Amino acid sequence: MGFSYDRYSRMISNPVRNYWALIAGRHDTNAFSVIDAAYRESQRRYHDWGHIVDLLTKLDCLKALAVRPDLIAAAIFWHDAVYVTRDDDGLLRPDAENVRASAALFERHSKFDETDTQAIHDLIMATANHLNARATVEHYPGFSRDLDLFLDLDLSSLGASWSEFEQNLARLRFEYAWVPEPLFCLGRLQMIDTFAAHGDALYRLDETRKLWCARAHQNLARAQEELRRQVARLASSA
């Protein structure tokens, strides 16, 4: 039985429909329902359909850079399918656990052949360590470059306008609403410091570096300044 778009036609944008049409036949019939339910979870504000649409739209603009845009699209659909910020014990859930769970969920619904399934799995797993991930197996000629493009796409929001960057920070704050403000600010500052320290190596491809790197570092520098002031204010009022 083929996937029916009728239920979703008014709810999802063309990049989602178009890219899912490209890969739907290489999934079981429940796959899209699983993805759709995941990205509509109430605890999400950044890691939701908006993020997926953004990445698919950018992939569509940059697909000439990809060897296998279909596999990159599949990784985009699944890479945040599991997103939980704290475990049942109330402690912070390591993001790598979400990534592993997302990759496993993809594999449960995949009907891609073995090589393509492993390639998509490795793309998803690379998001557990964006800045240092490297392809350990060249699943097809050009896989390493596709991995670099996928990771650059996933960090492309760092190079958005300041207003969008600021809104994304607020969306992330919602997802971590249970974390006390001082701890959240320190965690965000540490993450932003790490991104900023990578300089031009923040993006891997020359093409994406030209698109996003300058604005990303402007945003990161501004966010560092504002977060440091906020951390100092919170410390002084404690």
UniProtKB/TrEMBL annotation:
<protein>
    <recommendedName>
        <fullName>Metal-dependent HD superfamily phosphohydrolase</fullName>
    </recommendedName>
</protein>
<dbReference type="InterPro" id="IPR009218">
    <property type="entry name" value="HD_phosphohydro"/>
</dbReference>
